[in-house]
Structures are given as structure tokens and as C-alpha cells.
Amino acid sequence: MGVLVKVDSEKCTLCKLCVEYCPAYVFVVQNSSVKADSSRCIECYGCIPLCPVQAIAIEVLEGALVDFATKSGDEKPRPQEPTSTGVNRQST
């Protein structure tokens, strides 16, 4: 994904709400601290307001979005041209 999930170990109280809540299992307890696996994040951002001590931060990685957009070989993504459906709204 295009984010970096960080847990501030100095703020974290090990309440484990993030571990229990996260639908993508981003958070795990290791060696008496909560660790985050950013590669699993589905970017729902539910963990941020859930943390009672604001120990979770998510950084959006702009480069990841640019890399994805340019993989097609095009320099910039371009919107598709609208196509005519042949339906006249006034005649229906």
C-alpha cells in the first residue's frame, strides 16, 4: 500500500485496542510493544481515532502513488473521454 504506519512506543500503553480492532491485522505485540506491518494496511484509518493516547500515526507515501500511476508506461494518468450512450434524457 501507499502508507507507513507508525506506533510511538513511548506513548503506547499496550491497551491492544489496535490489535483487536484492525481488520487487516496490521498490529501485533512483540517483545512487550506493539509493532505495525504497513504492508498489510488497507488504509481505513480506523486505528487513529481508536488509540486513546494518540500513539498511532499514518504517513501517506506520495512516491508509492506516483509509481503506481506511471507503471502503465504513460507519463501521467489521463481521464477517459466520455462516450455517448445513445440515450436522449428528454425522450424518456
Quick tags:
20% helix; two-stranded antiparallel sheet; Alpha-Beta Plaits; globular
Descriptive report:
The chain is α+β, with helices and mostly antiparallel strands and 92 residues long. The protein has a single domain (3-73), classed as Alpha-Beta Plaits, CATH 3.30.70.20. It contains 3 helices and 4 strands. The chain has helices at 17-21, 47-50, 62-70; strands at residues 3-7, 27-30, 33-36, 56-60. The radius of gyration is 21 Å and the shape is globular.
Specify the overall morphology. globular
Per the CATH scheme, the topology name is Alpha-Beta Plaits
Number of domains: 1
Write down the CATH class. Alpha Beta
Q: Would you count the extended β strands for me?
A: 4
- β-strand percent reads 15-25%
CA(first)-CA(last) distance:
44 Å
Helix-strand sequence: EHEEHEH
Q: Please count the helical segments.
A: 3
Helix content: 10-25%
Q: Architecture, according to CATH?
A: 2-Layer Sandwich
The neighbouring-strand order within the major sheet is 1-4
Q: Name the average pLDDT.
A: 80
Structural class: alpha+beta
Unreliable spans are 65-71
Radius of gyration: 21 Å
